[in-house]
Amino acid sequence: MPTPDVTAFVRATLPAPPARVLEIGAGDGTLAEALMATGYDVVAIDPASESPAVRRVALHELDEPPFDAAVAVVSLHHVEPLGESCARLGTLVRPGGVLVVDEVDFARVDERAGRWWLDRSGHPEHALAHLDHMHPLARLREALQPYFELGEPVRGPYLYRWNMPTDVRAEEEAQIAAGDLPATGARLVGIRRP
């Protein structure tokens, strides 16, 4: 389930309703539901979802008419095959359409971030143990660049959203501001190239 700040970021970045929006990696469909409640026409996809409101299809296999926008909240980092999926995304978003990405930049999850997460999450496994199959932000940008004019990433906290109680967000933000933790979150906006 997306946090309120993620939902606000997505809503503020999308074109006005009733724009047609593709949500990639929709999970349980919570964000798609929130967008539909405000007038958007949303197609939510996730090959691993168990929600009846979410289509179980991989991005590279989706066949739909063009969308006005696409949203990917913490989902592109594990999309496979990456190149083919991003090429397909380029055909699914109309020229001039918007791509909204909220991601974790796994290249910035260093030992400090991993230890901080482990100490607060109560998870038995170190965060760095999960990174070997994740696409770092630089690879995502490279795969999207032929199709989307991408802005610079806006860096911020992410660890508080990774299986942790949300009350640690302020602590993470303060430690990022002090230089004690890397900003592992990244938000990008892209415009579909003509």
Describe this structure in words.
The chain is of the alpha/beta class. It has one domain (4-192): Vaccinia Virus protein VP39 (Rossmann fold, 3-Layer(aba) Sandwich), CATH 3.40.50.150. The chain has helices at residues 4-13, 30-37, 82-92, 111-121, 137-144, 169-177, and strands at 20-24, 41-45, 67-73, 93-104, 148-150, 154-156, 185-192. Strands 1, 2, 3, 4, 5, 6 and 7 form a 7-stranded mixed β-sheet that branches. Helix 2 links the parallel strand 1 (20-24) and strand 2. The longest helix is centred in the middle third of the chain and has 11 residues, at 82-92. The radius of gyration is 16 Å and the shape is globular. The N and C termini lie far apart (33 Å).
Find the CATH topology: Rossmann fold
Q: Give the radius of gyration.
A: 16 Å
Q: Which structural class do you get from the secondary structure elements?
A: alpha/beta
Order of helical and strand elements: HEHEEHEHHEEHE
The CATH homologous superfamily is termed Vaccinia Virus protein VP39
**CATH class category:** Alpha Beta
Distance between the termini: 33 Å
Please report the number of helical segments: 6
Helical amount:
25-40%
Q: What CATH architecture do you see?
A: 3-Layer(aba) Sandwich
Low-confidence stretches are: none
3D shape: globular
Using DSSP, what is the number of strands? 7
Tally of separate domains? 1
Biggest pleated-sheet summary = 7 strands, mixed
The percent range for strand residues is 15-25%
Write a short abstract of this structure:
This protein has 194 residues and is an alpha/beta fold. The chain has helices spanning 4-13, 30-37, 82-92, 111-121, 137-144, 169-177; strands spanning 20-24, 41-45, 67-73, 93-104, 148-150, 154-156, 185-192.
